[in-house]
Amino acid sequence: MAGGARSPMLPFVEHRIINLALELRLADDALTGRVTAADGSDTDFSGWLGLVATIESLLAETAREAEARA
C-alpha cells in the first residue's frame, strides 16, 4: 500500500497493513501449512522457521511492489 499513513510521533515511519490467511497443520509436533496472500497466491511451508521465512518473503515482496508503484 503506497503512501500509507505516517505516525504523528514518528514522522518517518510508514505503516502498512498486510492481510495473510494462515492454515496450520500439526501432526506429532511437526508443523506444516500454507500462507495465502491477499492476491490469492499460496505458499506452503514446513516448520516454524519455514513459517517465518515465508512471512518475511511475502513482506519483502509487498515492499518491492509498493516501491515499484511509487
Compact overview of the structure:
The protein is α+β, with helices and mostly antiparallel strands and 70 residues long.
How does this model look, in words?
The chain is an alpha+beta fold. The chain has one domain (20-69). Helices cover 33% and strands 30% of the residues. The chain contains one helix and three strands, in the order βββα. It has one helix spanning 47-69; strands at residues 20-27, 30-37, 42-46. It has a three-stranded antiparallel beta sheet with strand order 1-2-3, with helices on one face. The longest helix has 23 residues, at 47-69.
What's the end-to-end separation, in Å? 10 Å
Q: Which oligomerization state do the chains in this entry correspond to?
A: single chain
How many domains? The number is 1
- Strand percentage lies at 25-35%
User: Percent helix among the residues?
Assistant: 25-40%
Tell me about the largest β-sheet.
3 strands, antiparallel
What Rg is obtained from the alpha carbons, in whole angstroms?
A: 15 Å
Helix and strand run: EEEH
Count every helix, treating DSSP H or I runs of 4 or more residues as helices.
1
Please mark out the parts with pLDDT under 50 across 5 or more consecutive residues, or reply none. none
SS class:
alpha+beta
Arrangement of strands in the largest sheet:
1-2-3
Q: Indicate the mean pLDDT.
A: 84
Overall shape: it is: elongated
The strand count comes to: 3
